[in-house]
Amino acid sequence: MKRTFDFLKLVWTWAVFLSYTNVQSQNHVPAEILIQLHPGQDASMWQQNDVEKRQRAQSTYPCIRSITPVAASLNIWKVQIDTTCTSESRLLQQLKQDPAIAIAQFNHYVELRSTTPNDPLFTQQWQWYNRGQNQGIPGLDIGLRQAWDISTGGTTAQGDSIVVAIIDTGIDTIHEDLRPNRWYNLQEIPNNGSDDDGNGYVDDYRGWNSQRLNDDISETNLGGHGTGVAGIVGAKGNNGIGGSGVNWDVKLMTIVWGATGTEEIILRSFSYAHTQRKLYNQTSGQKGAFVVAINASWGISGLRSDDFPIWCPFFDSLGTQGILTVNAASNRSGDSALTGDMPSACPSEYLIVVTSLDKQGQLVNGHGPNTVDLAAFGEAVYSTRLREGYREFSGTSFAAPQVAGAIGLLYSSPCGHLAELARDQPAEAALQVRRLILNGVEPIATLQDKVVTGGFLRVDKSMKLLSAFCTTDARTTLQLMASPNPFREQLLVPIYASKALESATLEVYNLQGQRLYANTLSIPADFPALVEIEASNWPQGMYLLRLKTGGKEMVVQKVIKL
Q1: Which of 16, 26, 234, 376 could make a disulfide contact with 457, Cβ separation 3.0–4.6 Å?
Q2: What is the spatial distance between Cα 414 and Cα 115, in angstroms, rounded to a whole number?
Q3: Helix (H, G, I), strand (E, B) or coil at 103
Q4: 53: burial class by Cβ within 10 Å (0-12, 13-18, 19+)?
Q5: Is 419 helix (H, G, I), strand (E, B) or coil?
Q6: How many domains is the chain built from?
């Protein structure tokens, strides 16, 4: 008898488990159907009259438990049913045949679009995804998970392998999370004493050491500065090992200048990256390297640009080939414009200077409202350590490579226009990406009047601006591209204009004609302006976005609040 009871209990438990598993595997809410009635149909009358009529016909309509509004202005309702009375699929088919109903469907689950790597230490990298761990503020991060929904790095839309050059103290050449993403000069035969690719460097197979004039790029600094910086840019992501860089896939070009050196060594280092990209441009990618960014997490405090007439113009030379240079601001507190700092004082459009915030959003290092462009998170950030392993690093040195990595990630987006621009007009492509970085920042009070943009890096916003830039029809004078649509709490509205507009007004109306939002702004030519609209208090329903200029309504877009 006991065996029979145990067997029945096992069967019951298994049935419950299967039932639970089936519910969890569904892509919609059990026992719920969404319907949209035809215009002019009254939901309460439909529920009463049609149910009574179908009850007489012995239909499944008595299985409807309740009807609640979802978007009443659009005549959209949620129907809850009794599944002990009928099956979901049977009732759904009957609702689809109802002449009063325009649309009937299941109430599907919606998932957050955020890509997370399977690396076990990713949870330690709060700068990528701040959930409030270790006294951080949830959401205060650079928005990588959302950006990774679009791309995780690697190549451009035209297949160019993206390279980020790191001028530093070297790299741990055998680190498990760095080895897969290291750059090699495949046009060079190692250790044969010849300049096989004709770039002016002999045996530069693994990169270049500007002090020793060879390709010995092994990390020599016991603090592992270069190894930590490299991990921020491009530790291999989603490989089940360690953590992840801004790019899961990218080529890390290592150029060694050493922990101490001279301006001569720095110029040699910049020249190597310049030579490789120039050769790539000249040979249509047959030789050289598609270097899009250089990370320079070092500098000279107390000096001004006037004393460096050779160094400062070099950034423009790099930019002409399509290379942006990212420099770490001074770790000394204070305004670098007053105290002096190099190379952040150089007035180049192809230079981006980065300071550092901590996990509470506090500025902890040098700043400059005219010399420092933006911030990233550089205090107690997790990255690769020399001689294997991982540890925390602090300073602007580890904020800057987040921006250098973001440049590489933007180039990897599925944007044919940017990839084509990078090949045909590399300098213009570099300037476009710089604008994407600076215009996509998240403003924060602690950076107001402290950095040029007043904000910190948000790669997801920069990627959204790039998407708007790439999907715009060049024949259209003005275009709105609000997203997400439908939306819930916040609406992002990139506005594109093929001609610059000094004054344009964006307005949002509900279907009753009430204006809920208005903002007058200027829009640059051929580059989207990004407007953020907080709409958490708006009721569900449809809204109209209207863009006006010169008193005329130019563009209208419909959006839906869920």
Answers
A1: 376
A2: 16
A3: strand
A4: exposed
A5: helix
A6: 3
Same domain, 505 and 367: no
Per-residue pLDDT, 24: 38
Residues 327 and 207 placed together within one structural domain of the fold:
yes
| Among candidate residues 517, 428, 509, the one with its CA nearest the CA of residue 469 | 428
State the DSSP H helix or E strand holding residue 542, giving kind and residue range, or none if neither. strand 541-549
Confidence (pTM): 0.73
3-class secondary structure, 391:
strand
Q: Which domain holds residue 66?
A: 2-108
Label residue 39 left, alpha or beta by phi (over 0 means left) and psi (-120 to 50 means alpha): beta
Same domain, 208 and 345: yes
Check whether residue 311 and residue 362 sit in a common domain: yes
Query: Distance between alpha carbon 152 and the CA centroid of its chain, in Å?
Result: 9
Same-domain check for residues 239 and 326: yes
Whether residue 338 is contained in a domain is answered as yes
CA 95 to CA 56: how far, in whole Å? 16
Q: What is the structure's pLDDT at 554?
A: 62
> Is position 42 within any domain?
yes
Sequence-separated (6 or more) residues with CB below 8 Å from residue 189:
196, 203, 205
In this structure, the answer to whether residues 314 and 207 fall within a common structural domain is yes
Structural domain contains residue 248: yes
Q: Are the beta carbons of 340 and 423 closer than 8 angstroms?
A: no
In terms of domains, do 379 and 302 share one? yes
3-state secondary structure 1-53: CHHHHHHHHHHHHHHHHHHHHHHHHCCEEEEEEEEEECCCCCHHHHHHHHHHH
Per-residue pLDDT for 2 more than 80?
Answer: no
What is residue 484's predicted lDDT score, i.e. its pLDDT?
A: 76
* Cα 513 to Cα 515: distance, rounded to the nearest angstrom: 6
Is residue 7 predicted with pLDDT exceeding 80? no
Same domain, 505 and 432: no
| Cα distance between residue 231 and residue 538, in whole Å | 43
CB 323 within 8 A of CB 272: no
Query: Cis bond leading into 486, ω under 30°?
Result: yes
Give the three-class secondary structure for 81. Answer: strand
Radius of gyration of the chain (CA): 29
Helix (H, G, I), strand (E, B) or coil at 200: coil
Q: Which residue has the tokens 């050779």?
A: 310
Domain membership flag for residue 552 = yes
Residues known to be catalytic = 168, 225, 397
- % of residues, the chain, pLDDT over 70: 89
Residues 385 and 398: beta-carbon distance below 8 Å: no
Residues sharing a CB contact under 8 Å with residue 438, sequence separation 6 or more, in sequence order = 352, 373, 374, 452, 453
